[in-house]
Amino acid sequence: MKIESKEPLFRISKRGEMARGKAWGIRLLAVVLSLIVCAVIIFAIVKLNPLKVYGAMFEGAFGTTKRSWVTIRDTMMLLCIAIGLAPAFKMKFWNIGAEGQILMGGIVSAACMIYLGKTVPTIPLLVIMLIGSMIAGGIWGFIPGLFKAKWNTNETLFTLMMNYIAIQITSFFVAKWENPFGSNTVGIINSRTQAGWFPQIFGQAYTLNVIIVMLLVVGMYLYLNYSKQGYEIAVVGESENTARYAAINVKKVIMRTMAISGALCGVAGFIAVAGASHTISTSTAGGQGFTAIIVCWLAKFNSFVMILISALLVFFEKGAIEIASRYNLNDYVSNMITGIILFFILGSEFFINYKVKIRGSKEETK
C-alpha cells in the first residue's frame, strides 16, 4: 500500500556560521526594506516625497551643531547601557533590570550633587558620584544574581520586578527633593553653581560623556575577549555543566558578573544625571534599558559594533520625532516608524541564523 505524504511548504533549519560580510549585507538590506516600508506609510499619511521626509530625518538628528551633540549624547547613553548588559547576556543571564540599575545610580549621583555640591570641589565630587553610582547599580544587579546563584530564581521576572521597586524609590526621593515645593519634580540641580555637572572639554558639554563611554567600550571588549573572567562568562553561558566540569565556580561567576553589569548600568545613571539632564526623575532611564537589549544582541556582545547600532537607533529615533513634529503628526507615528525599523532589523537576525527552504514536491513511501 502506498501512502502519499506532502512535505511542508516551508522548512526551517539551523544555519551554520555565516560569513560576516554576508550577515552585514542582510542587515543592511533589512534597513533598506524598512525605510521603503516606512516611505510607503509616510506617503499614504502625508502625501509627501519620502526622500524629502528622510532629509528631514537627517536634519532632525544632525541639522545643527546642537542637534548633533544631543544625538551623540543620547548615543553614548544607550551605548553605555548596552555595554553594561553585555556580560550578563553573554552569560545567558537575562538582565531585564537595567532601568532600575540606571535609576539607582542616578539617585546616588543626584544625592551627592544636592548634599555635597556646596562643600566638595567639582572633580572630587564627580569621582564620588561615579563610585557611588557604580556601587548602587552594582548592588541592584548583585541581588538578582545572588538569588539566581543560591536559589535558581527566574532572573527575567526578578530583574523586571526590581525595576518597579527602583521606580518607587525614585518617586520617594523626587518627592523629598522637589524644587520648587509642590512641583513634584526635582528641577535642575545646582543650576547656579553647576556643582556635579560634567565640565566642558574642547568647548563642548558632552565631550566627557564620549570619553567615559569610549573607555568602557575598549575595556569591555578586552574584558570579554581576553580576560580569564571573560572566558568564564563565555563558558557559563554555553553550558553550566561544562563550566563545573572545568572547575569554574558557576555561582561566583553569576554573582560577580551581575554586580559588574549593574555597576556599569549605574554609570549610565551617573552620566544621565551629571552629564545630561542634571536632574532625577522616574523617566531618567527613558526605556533605554530595554532598547539596549536590542543593541547588545544585534552586536553579538561586541562593544565596538554596539557603537554603530546605538548610533543607528538613536538616529532613527531623532529623525522620526523630527518628521512627526515638522509635518504635524502625533507621537504615535514616530513610534510606529521606529517600531517598523526595529522589526526589520530584528527580523534580519532570523535569516542570518536560519535557512528557509520552500518545498512543494511530494514524496511517496511504502
Provide structural commentary.
The chain contains 13 helices and 4 strands. The longest helix is centred in the middle third of the chain and has 30 residues, at 122-151. With 366 residues, it is mainly alpha-helical. The strands form 2 sheets. The chain has a two-stranded antiparallel sheet with strand order 1-4. It has a two-stranded antiparallel sheet with strand order 2-3. 71% of the residues lie in helices and 5% in strands. Residues 361-366 have low confidence and may be disordered. The chain has 2 domains: 1-48 and 328-366, no CATH class; 68-305, no CATH class. Helix 5 packs antiparallel against helix 6 (155-177) and helix 5 runs antiparallel to helix 10 (250-277). It is globular, with a radius of gyration of 23 Å.
Compute the average pLDDT. 90
What oligomeric state do the depicted chains represent?
single chain
Structural class: mainly alpha
- Beta-strand percent range: under 5%
Annotation field: number of helices: 13
Q: What is the 3D form?
A: globular
How many independent structural domains? Answer: 2
In what order do the strands lie side by side in the largest sheet?
A: 1-4
In percent, how helical is the residue content? Answer: over 70%
Order of helices and strands: EEHHHHHHHHHHHHHEE
Distance between the termini: 6 Å
Report the major sheet: 2 strands, antiparallel
Overall radius of gyration: 23 Å
DSSP strand count: 4
Low-confidence stretches: 361-366
